[in-house]
Specification:
By secondary structure, the protein is an alpha+beta fold. It has three domains: 128 residues, no CATH class; 81 residues, Single alpha-helices involved in coiled-coils or other helix-helix interfaces (Up-down Bundle), CATH 1.20.5; 130 residues, 2-Layer Sandwich (Heat Shock Protein 90), CATH 3.30.565.10. It has twelve helices and five strands.
């Protein structure tokens, strides 16, 4: 049934053509039974014209209106009484009122529709002598014309309102997409600056170790070997960070004060938690597994996720909110879980603009986690509050 309905909607002209044939056949049968001689000959042109009007009412609406008006005037002029084919006038009036034609066209159609019944009464009913019946006939026939126009006009209004809603929704979607792209671009620029600092630090360590190895090469070979091992490990780590750095579109240059700022690591998460506690938020902090040194990009990502999550809790969790931070050291990565029991902010706020309106919320978190090849799961908790879970591997993408 649905397929049939979809087919009919895709072929409106075919549907109109079908009803035009039905109307023409019915009117022809009526003429054959009720008309004879000259009356039959005079009635057929009107039937043909009205059938054509039904078939083309949606393809040439304005022309069909004038064709219908002309047909009605022809019937009045030659005295050809209306037939079942005159129902086409109601269909045409509805179509004009529901179409995108100019308002004056719709109102002109309404005027002709309201005038049709009185003109028909004057032409045919007065000859029968009963003036009261003539008035009743005029009123009775006028009502369907008025209803057809009102129904068509309401459809036109509803379509216009729906079109406005669609346009507004598309505009909002474009604005939302543009804001999201801007947030991603800005966040990537910030990540690029931070990774730049990490790589610069590693290269500095390599230079210092190389100078030291060259100095003690002859007098302390063991120390030189250790320095070379440090250079090798640091170099590999720097290469991994450089691979993550490739592909980032850096949209802005860092300001002078931002260059070479030391970046926080996992060990400083505890300091961050203490700062948040001092600010008034009750936070539980727990570490599982054996702490060990992680790639600088992973440590920086973990710190920023905890920082953003606790900032969100402090701003939107409410005065009685509590939070918990849990770090789990696995053999192949670092697990991170941040939860709170506050009332939380709308999920869209985390997605679009960050909790403070200046950060980038989950957009920034996902960018950071994606850069180190990790996974992120975030969303409201069943009993209230918010939950952020991340898994950061020791070997990221490109390692």
């Amino acid at each position: 049934m649905q397929r049939l309905y979809d087919f009919l909607r895709r072929h409106p002209t075919g549907v109109d053509g079908f009803w035009a044939v039905v109307l023409f056949a019915s009117a022809s049968l009526e003429i054959a039974e009720s008309f004879d001689g000259l009356a039959r000959a005079l009635a057929m042109p009107a039937v043909i014209a009205l059938g054509l009007a039904v078939a083309l009412r949606r393809k040439a609406t304005r022309k069909v209106l004038w064709l219908t008006v002309g047909t009605g005037l022809y019937q009045l002029a030659v005295g050809s009484e209306p037939t079942v084919a005159n129902v086409a006038m109601l269909a045409v009036l509805y179509t004009v009122a529901a179409s995108d034609e100019a308002r004056w066209v719709s109102r002109t159609a309404l005027g002709w529709g309201l005038a049709a019944a009185p003109l028909a009464a004057l032409r045919w009913q007065f000859d029968k002598g009963a003036s009261e019946e003539t008035v009743q006939f005029a009123i009775f026939v006028t009502v369907p014309f008025a209803l057809a126009w009102v129904l068509g006009d309401s459809v036109r209004t509803r379509r216009a309102y729906y079109a406005q809603l669609v346009e507004r929704n598309e505009r909002l979607e474009k604005e939302r997409e543009a804001q999201g792209k801007a947030a991603v671009a800005a966040e990537r620029a910030r990540i690029a600056r931070e990774l730049h600092d990490v790589v610069a630090h590693n290269v500095s360590v390599m230079v210092v170790q190389a100078d030291g190895a060259a100095y003690v090469m002859d007098v302390a070979p063991d120390q030189a070997k250790e320095a070379l091992k440090t250079i090798s490990g640091t170099g590999r780590q720097a290469l991994a960070e450089m691979r993550r750095l490739l592909g980032i579109l850096r949209t802005g240059e860092p300001q002078e004060s931002e260059d070479y700022v030391p970046q926080p690591d996992v060990e400083q998460i505890e300091v961050l938690v203490e700062q948040v506690r001092t600010a008034g938020l009750d936070v539980d902090f727990e570490v599982e597994g054996a702490p060990r040194q992680l790639p600088s990009g992973v440590e920086l990502t973990a710190y920023r996720i905890v920082q953003e999550a606790l900032t969100n809790t402090r701003k939107h969790g409410g005065p009685e909110a509590k939070a918990s931070v849990r770090l789990v050291y696995f053999d192949d990565g670092l697990g991170l879980l941040v939860e709170d029991d506050g009332r939380g902010a709308a999920h869209e706020l985390y997605e679009d603009g960050g909790a403070d309106g200046a950060g980038h919320g989950l957009i920034g978190m996902r960018e950071r986690v994606g850069m180190v090849g990790g996974t992120l799961d975030a969303g409201p908790r069943p009993g209230g509050g918010f939950r952020i879970s991340a898994l950061l591997p020791l070997k990221g993408k490109g390692s």
